[in-house]
Amino acid sequence: MNFEEFKTCGLRRSLDILSGKWKPLILSSLFEEEQVRFVELWRKMPRVSKKVLAEQLKQLEENDIIQRIEVYNFPLEVYYRLTEKGQKLGPILSELHEWGNHLKA
C-alpha cells in the first residue's frame, strides 16, 4: 500500500474517528442508554477531565457518530445519543470487546 492508498484507506479513516482514550467508553455508555447527559457520562469515566470529555464528544459529533441535544431549561441540559451511523458501530465494538476478553486468557 502506498501513501496515497493509505490516505483513503477505510481502516485508517475508521481508526482516526474512534481513536482517543475515552471514545470507546463514551460509545459503550451510549449503547447502554438511549441518551445520556454530559454530567452522567463524566461520572462514568474514571479520571477524565470535563475538558477532555467535551473534546472527545465534539470529535464524535463532528464525525456524525453522536448527536448533541440541548434542552432549553434552566439550567441548560445537554444530552448525547448515537446517530444512525454511530449505531452501526454496535456489532463492531461488541466484537472488539469479545476479542479483548480472549486476550486475557
Structure characterization notes:
The protein is of the alpha+beta class and 105 residues long. It is built from seven helices and three strands. The chain has a three-stranded antiparallel β-sheet. The chain is globular.
**Low-confidence region ranges:** none
Give a count of the beta strands, DSSP E runs of length 2 or more: 3
Strand-residue proportion: 5-15%
Instruction: Tell me, rounded to a whole number, the average pLDDT.
Output: 90
The coarse overall form would be: globular
The strands making up the biggest β-sheet line up spatially as 1-3-2
- SSE pattern, N- to C-terminal: HHHEHHEEHH
CA-based gyration radius? 15 Å
End-to-end separation in angstroms reads: 34 Å
Counting helices, strands and paired strands, the structural category is: alpha+beta
Helix count equals 7
The helical percent reads 55-70%
Sketch the major β-sheet.
Answer: 3 strands, antiparallel
Topology overview:
Blueprint: H1 3-7, H2 10-18, H3 23-32, E1 36-37, H4 38-44, H5 50-62, E2 66-71, E3 77-82, H6 84-87, H7 90-104
Antiparallel strand pairs: 1-3, 2-3
Summary of the model, kept short:
By secondary structure, this protein is an alpha+beta fold.
